[in-house]
Amino acid sequence: MTIQRMDNVAIVVDDLDAAVAFFTELGMELEGKAQIEGLYADRTVGLDGVRSDIAMMRTPDGHSKLELTKYHTPAVSDAEPRNPPPNTLGLHRVMFAVDDIDDTIARLRVHGAELLGEVAQYENIFRLCNLRGPAGIIVALAEQIG
Questions:
Q1: What are residue 139's DSSP bridge partners?
Q2: Which of 26, 107, 115, 119 has the most other CB atoms within 10 Å of its CB?
Q3: Helix, strand, coil percentages for the chain (3-state, nearest 5)
Q4: How far is CA 143 from CA 23, 64, 102, 112, 127, in A?
Q5: Residue 82 CA, distance from chain mean position
Q6: Which residues face 122 on adjacent strands?
């Protein structure tokens, strides 16, 4: 048996509304919100007393999703360092294809995004950049130019 698809990527955030606003500005759509708690939640994530709020965001094509999670209990464990560099082991980044990279960066800066380097061009194919987004995650953008 093989997998059917990748369903979603989960990101733990400290401000759910701000994260929803950030990814909405990027062009994702809020599919729904829910409160998660109970024995099934405890067993699924391996923690006791889970109570969290989630927001499911989907890309405009409907094929990819982000689950934004705000834990109320147990208390959130802060990653060290708070904003790890791009070469840190573990989840590296989430990348999105965009129509206009400069416009997207400008709109996301209003939501606290910080450019990690600069917009760079890969041959005559892509313009690329990395931003620091909600909860310190790295969001990469790619604009196809050729």
A1: 94, 131
A2: 26
A3: 20, 35, 45
A4: 17, 18, 9, 21, 5
A5: 16
A6: 126
- pTM for the whole thing? 0.89
Answer whether 12's CB lies under 8 Å from 135's CB: yes
Q: Where are the alpha helices (DSSP H) in 27-87?
A: 39-45
Closest by alpha carbon to 19, among 139, 126, 103?
139
- Distance (Å, rounded) from C-alpha 74 to C-alpha 86? 28
d(CA 107, CA 101): 10
